[in-house]
């Protein structure tokens, strides 16, 4: 019986149809990633994929930003990606950025990756003079950054030392 049915079906009809896709480039503050997205994907599908790839659970602070004709806009989660006014040239580029800032970063930013992404974005915005930071605060923030970097290097050195034992 199965043989009779299979003989009536052509080989091409047995093959699974591959969904049509387009390439997307996601730029974070310290990395770039490329994904193949299905044409039917909504903003939420792409955003969730990016967050899973980054290992990010505190997703509510972030969004995907794009630029079109010198205008910055945010990808809407409930709208198809290609229905936005994005460039149709592949790869379509989005920037993964903090969209909302917490009132108390120390208490609200729990995950290390969230803290890292916020730090890089705020640092860049201060250096690009997009947000104002008084000179005294700039010196304090720079000292924190140096201290964090030295602490990280010291920790890596200790781990390497104990791995050699």
TrEMBL record:
Keyword Transmembrane: no
Cell location: Cell projection
Record Pfam families: FERM_M, FERM_N
GO cellular component terms, semicolon-separated: cell projection
Keywords: Cell projection
Domain FERM: 22-165
GO MF terms held by the record: actin binding
InterPro entries registered for this protein in UniProt: Band_41_domain (IPR019749), ERM (IPR011174), Ez/rad/moesin-like (IPR000798), FERM_2 (IPR035963), FERM_central (IPR019748), FERM_CS (IPR019747), FERM_domain (IPR000299), FERM_N (IPR018979)
PANTHER family named in the record: MERLIN/MOESIN/EZRIN/RADIXIN
UniProt-recorded name of the protein: NF2, moesin-ezrin-radixin like (MERLIN) tumor suppressor
Organism of origin: Macaca fascicularis
Gene of this entry: NF2
């Amino acid at each position: 019986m199965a043989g009779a049915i299979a003989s009536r079906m052509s080989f091409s009809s047995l093959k699974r149809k591959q969904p049509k896709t387009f390439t997307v480039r996601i730029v974070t503050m310290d990395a770039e990633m490329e994904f193949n997205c299905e044409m039917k994907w909504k903003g939420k599908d792409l955003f969730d994929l990016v967050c899973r790839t980054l290992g990010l659970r505190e997703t509510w602070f972030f969004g995907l930003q794009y630029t079109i004709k010198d205008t910055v806009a945010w990808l809407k989660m409930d709208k198809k990606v290609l229905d936005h006014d994005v460039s149709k040239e592949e790869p379509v580029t989005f920037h993964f950025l903090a969209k909302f800032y917490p009132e108390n970063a120390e208490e609200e930013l729990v995950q290390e990756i969230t803290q890292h992404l916020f730090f890089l974005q705020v640092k860049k915005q201060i250096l690009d003079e997009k947000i104002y930071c008084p000179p005294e605060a700039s010196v304090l923030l720079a000292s924190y950054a140096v201290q964090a970097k030295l602490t990280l290097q010291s920790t890596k050195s200790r781990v390497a030392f104990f791995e050699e034992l």
